[in-house]
């Protein structure tokens, strides 16, 4: 009689759906599978979305989000949680309350706009992100547009990334990754807890097909934390995985294509 298969680390994503499959819940679950974890999901919104942009978005009721979360956590359990699109103050408050009572590491991707510039977070929800969601985060992963939304700081160089990190940390997350992908030159991110500082650098790749990078990075960090890695190790490994996924990104539709979440499996053949 064969022994039961080992249970992989369990990671939960709380985010919106991307019907085009490049970002959101779909990107999160692909990343979790690629990194050897069991991905689970709480859907917060449905979007009509493709390579050209977001054509529509419909938020789920808070009761539906709460019920999904309780179903997963109370029965299956989680070893890390990642949050993405939480479009309204009500959803942010609901999810923050659930996370605070869970006790697992939390990666907060404070999604504000899509790759195409479409708003995915109501302006009135920003204060809830600052006061409710970021304080329960183990790691927050804002890009430079989200930094500007949350802090008013416009980042143009690495010194500005330090200032932005201090502003975000003041809201309460234990660590922050300031993603500098919108700056010219190499792709540089700053990971810091206010004491330690880690600069993560990678060459800028000549590939415009980068849809889903933010979701993918946050999910990859959550996978590392679920495996028991410390934050710097989880973030370094996630950066390596995302860099490979960007390098392998492919054209899809008439606009910006997705990164390739399965790049490691394909290059291993």
Automatic annotation (TrEMBL):
GO MF, any single term: hydroxymethylpyrimidine kinase activity
Record keywords: Kinase, Thiamine biosynthesis, Transferase
Enzyme class label: transferase
Substrates-to-products reaction catalysed: 4-amino-5-hydroxymethyl-2-methylpyrimidine + ATP = 4-amino-2-methyl-5-(phosphooxymethyl)pyrimidine + ADP + H(+); 4-amino-2-methyl-5-(phosphooxymethyl)pyrimidine + ATP = 4-amino-2-methyl-5-(diphosphooxymethyl)pyrimidine + ADP
Superkingdom as given in the UniProt entry: Bacteria
Pathway this chain belongs to: Cofactor biosynthesis; thiamine diphosphate biosynthesis; 4-amino-2-methyl-5-diphosphomethylpyrimidine from 5-amino-1-(5-phospho-D-ribosyl)imidazole: step 3/3
Domain Pyridoxamine kinase/Phosphomethylpyrimidine kinase positions: 18-260
EC number: 2.7.1.49, 2.7.4.7
Keyword Translocase found: no
NCBIfam families cross-referenced by the UniProt entry: HMP-P_kinase
Function comment: Catalyzes the phosphorylation of hydroxymethylpyrimidine phosphate (HMP-P) to HMP-PP, and of HMP to HMP-P.
Protein name according to UniProt: Bifunctional hydroxymethylpyrimidine kinase/phosphomethylpyrimidine kinase
Organism: Streptomyces atroolivaceus
